[in-house]
Structures are given as C-alpha cells and as structure tokens.
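From the pipeline queue, job 12 of 40. The input is one protein chain; the requested action is below.

Action: predict structure.
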Amino acid sequence: MKFSLIAIVATFSSPTMAFITTAASPNKNKCSSSTQLQTSALESLADITTLSIDSGDIDTVARYAKTGVITDATTNPLFVSQAGANGDARYEAMVQEAVTYAKRATCAEDGCPVPEDTLNLAIDRLAVNLGKELVSLVPGRVSTEVDIRLSYDTEKSVERARSIIAMYEEAGISKDRILIKLAGTWEGIQAAKVLEKEGIQCNITLVFSFLQAAAAAQAGAYLISPFPGRILDWHKKQTGAEGYTPEADPGVLAVKRMYAYFRKYGYDTICMPASWRPSRGAAVDGSDVDEILALAGVDEMTIPQPLLDSLCSLPPDAVKRHCDPTTDAAACNDPDFRLTEESFAQYWKTDMCGQEKLKEGMDAFTAETEKLITILIEKF
C-alpha cells in the first residue's frame, strides 16, 4: 500500500467549509495545543486514520502545519475563485502574477478581447500560485484541480494536467509534491490512468458511487475522495428519513464498501472520505461527527476545522475502529469485475445517486470557475 498522507483538502461539499479569510475565528487555536491533542478524540482518531484539514485559509494552513499534525494541502475551483476575489494583498499578488504570466505566454495585448487560451492559462496559473504558497507551508503534497469544464474530455484534461505540472516544475517544485485532482467521470478517471503512467499522481474527486471508486482503482488512481455526507443527503431526500444510526448511514456504508473492495483485491488506491453530515440529524447533540467516528480506521479523512474542534472536545475513548483492512476485505462480497467504457456507461445509467450528485458537484465547481473568469477578465 502507498504510504499514508495527511492532507488539507477543501471540497465544495463540506457543510462547514472554511473559506479564505484573513480574520481568525475565536476558536481557531482550539486544536493547536499539543496537550489538547493528547487528551482528545482527535488524537485517538489520528492513531488509526491519517487526518486532513479542510480549509483554504492560508493563515489556518500555516497554523496547523506548525503543529505537525498535517503535512499536505489542496486547492479547488472554489478556493481559487475566492483567491481571485479576496482582496487580501497576498491573494491579489497571486492574481496579478497569473494575469501577467498568461499575457506573456499567449501574447495577449492589453485592452484587447481576452482569448480563451489566455484565460485558461490564467486560471491554471492562479491555481498553481495558490498551490505554491501551500507548498511553502507544508512539507508534503499539494492537490491542484484540472478545469472542471474538461471533465468529459480525457485528452484535454491530460494536456492541462501536464501544463500544471510543468508550471510547478518551472518554479522548482517537483511533481512528487503535487496531486492532480480530476472529477470522477469515466473520462476524468481515464485521464488519471494516463497521468499515473507518467508518474503524475491523481486524486479522483466527486465520488458518490461504488462504480466510480472501482473504476478509479482499476485505473491506478492514487487516491479517491468519496463524499458520505452528500450520499446521505440523497438518500434522506429519497426516503424522507430524518436520520439514521451512524452504522446504517448510507454514506458510511458506501465508503466502507469502497474501502473493503480496495483492500480485498489489493488496490493501492487510498480511500479518503470528505464532506460530512450528522447521521442522526443536526438536532441531535454530538451528531456532527457521527460519520467521522463511524469511519474511524479508513485510510484517510479530510475534516473541516469546526469538526476538528468537535473531536477535540470529545474524550479519547469516543473513537473505536470501524474500518479494518483485514476484516473489511473478508466481508467484501463484490467481484473484481473489469470495467470497460461500455459496461461503466450501462451501470452508470442505473446509479441515480451518482448521476445526480456528480452533476450537482460539477455544476457548483463550474459556477465558481465562471466567477473566476469574470474576475480575471477585469484584470486584463
């Protein structure tokens, strides 16, 4: 199995997403004390699962990086869009450099209509600029996402990924410090297959179904990010249920199935759930970390700061291992069927949760990309 990573992952789906800001919230240092970590559920969880923090705030990343609890970081379209609109001098400098770089590289003149390739390069450059800042703060990997609008185009996704890696390498940052994020479409997964063979490791995001997870593993993807909270949302809407016990939460069960499949058949792909919801319902005290505790022991997790704070307030014995590679592999009943584009498409037609949630996620990221384009055009 690949070595375990501690990542900072920011996804649109977190219910308590930490946005890019310059002001610190009152409880930001709550989990920073080593004494607190040694006496909390958070420390117990870290003993059996690699932990991630879900934040796009550079100051927050820096603060947590200093604790030694985290090593990696990520960007996505929402955080890049926020960087473009933030107004903070640090983010504004990133935007201006991205515009200047894109102009110089594509020979776009000031005051002229901005060509599409110039805008695309500026988008990627801004993502790299934000990633470069995070690389300077953490010792591990930074994830940078390929333009979500290319999620159904394998060739163009590969091309943009290579360009992103080239910009990092121009800055003296090795590709082994970078994970390329791609959406969990068939085309995105096949782009990952190409890139992994070139030594460019990938994070398949927006995963809502076992089908996506199996395809990603078979393609050799380094890591997947399934969203148990969004899966729970879909099932609650379909059934009218107000809540589930954590062990019966459909999102928890979906992630456990993916994890079990990986472990049974020896896939190295890391299962890193993101996006959390209260299994029993928000009105139940302590339910905000239901899904996290129910998946304790999975390879990795990405958790936003408010939920990390909640874990800090719980005693160490609140954490019990619920994911185990040997036990879960033995319980896996799924065959290791080899997916093709045709069979994937046929199964996908019946996967309503996957279809609806993937579209919802892609639409959200596309909207953020379009906001960023508007911001960048004004800078040209």
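Job complete. Confidence is low (pLDDT under 50) at residues 1-29, 33-37.
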